[in-house]
Amino acid sequence: MAESRDYMTLPEEKGNVNISEEVLAAVVVGAVREIDGVSGMMTPMGNSVPNTASGTTSARRSAKGVKIDMTGDALKVDIYLMVEYGRPIPEVAEEVQKAVFSSLEAMTGCPVEAVNVHVGGVSLA
After folding, report:
1. Can you tell me the distance from the alpha carbon of 6 to that of 3, in angstroms, rounded to the nearest whole number?
2. Which end of the chain is more exposed for a tag (fewer CB within 10 A), N or C?
3. Domains of the chain from N-terminus onward
C-alpha cells in the first residue's frame, strides 16, 4: 500500500482508490460519537470540542481531537477525548478503540495498526 501526504492509496485490480485524510477523520469522529460515556473531543492541548459539534471544513478543523498517521503500511490513530463523570474510563476507552478500529477497516478497507485513546478530562455536565 502506498500513501501520500493527504491520501491513503489502496491499489485495486482496475486502478487505485485514494481516501483523503478528511474522510478517515470523519469516520473516526462518527465512530467515537456512537460510544456512550464520551462527552466530547479535545485538541491535544486540552481545548474541548463538544460532542455535538459538527463541521464541513477540512479534517484538521472539523475533526479536532483526531490525529491520523498514514506514513506506514497501516493507519495509526490518536484520539483525544473527554469522558462523562461516573463512567469507567478504561471501559469507555476500550469501546472507542474497538469502534474506531472496526469502522475504519469496514468503511475504508485500510488496515489499522493502532488506535490510541488519550483521555484528557472528565466532564461533570
Report:
1. 8
2. C
3. 2-123 (3.30.70.1350)
User: Which CB contacts under 8 angstroms, 24+ apart, belong to 97-102?
Assistant: 99/31, 99/32, 99/34, 99/35, 100/28, 100/31, 100/32, 102/31
Q: Mean per-residue pLDDT for 38-46? A: 82
- Beta strand 75-84 pairing with 112-123: parallel
Q: Three-class SS of residue 22?
A: helix
Cell of 46: 486540552
Residue 60, pLDDT above cutoff 70: no
pTM assigned to the model: 0.77
